[in-house]
Design goal:
With 359 residues, the chain is an alpha/beta fold. Helix content is 58%, strand content 9%. It contains 13 helices and five strands. α3 links the parallel β1 and β2. α3 packs across α5, α6 runs antiparallel to α7 and α8 packs across α9. The radius of gyration is 29 Å and the shape is elongated.
Amino acid sequence: MSAPDLEPVTPHGEHARPRTRGDSWGAFKESPYLPAVVLLFIIAAAAGLFAGSYTYAMANPTPRNIPAAVVGGLDSLRDRAFLARLEVALDTSLVLREYATEAEARIALEEQKVFAVLRSANGGVALDVASASGASVAQLLAESALKVAEATHVPVKVTDVKPLQRGDPRGLALFYISLAAVVIGFVGAIQLSVHAKGLNPLERIGFTVAYALLGGFAIAAVVDWLLGSVDLPFVQSWMILAFTMFTTGMVFTMFNTLMGRWAMIPTWGLMVLLGNPSSGGAVSWPLLPSVLGFIGRWLPPGASVNAQHAAVYYQGHQRIFPYLVLAGWSLVSCTVFWVWRHRHPGGRDRMPQHAATAS
């Protein structure tokens, strides 16, 4: 008996059409692989940019224009020659501002308008520096002045009139607590968006305020009370840290409203890649590349560092500008979030109006 002839079965519907390149791309776009592949390149780029931004700003700080006060002009040609040699040694130009008296120059130093005071004294030059305004600048000025004094045989007396606290000899503690506030501020907002997705707009803002207050208190308490690294004006430093955390948290919330799941990219770029290296906390702004030194003061990390420095070391000579910067970023972020809150991926589902009426 011969086997019966089998007719080939012709597939029907979609199975009859071979899969096109467009079909494959459409399926890929709907799969979890597309965002995963995008993240591969974003993470690699972020790693390189992170290393590059910090290395560019901090690895080889170079002095540029350093504001300095001169009391009454220097008395002798020898003193003026010392000043010229000092500029050569610094490989920069000192931006000199003349003051009639030592008291006026000291006020300028307290108000952080200048980083040093030069005056003639005892047949030589007296140089007053302020480590609290920038340890790296003060160290550079002192070391350069002593080398020039040896080369020119001009007696020089260097005095640190605003030294750092004993528990923070490098002046980095205020940078670190500000860095903690910046990073934990937007990480907290990220966690709210993941684990408390159902929060409505006012609730989200309220919980951002709450974790900012608690987080700022925890940072200040650990650094001051537990470790004793820096003697903080506790309430003021706490409020600055809380303000910083709230600001960075709302910046992420703003970007999350505008960009959805990709909000981390501009937040990280603004706060970490650009903001922290340019804040002046680790390297004083006269030693930063000029563009970074200018931009840093207008970003939340720089504003936070500047506010803390003034609060800890310059009571009575504080400036409103850092607080205005933080307030500006907070106001813009909250406004954008509120106006476009319907675009934010969080919030509880509301009943349609007609359904509520019918019930």
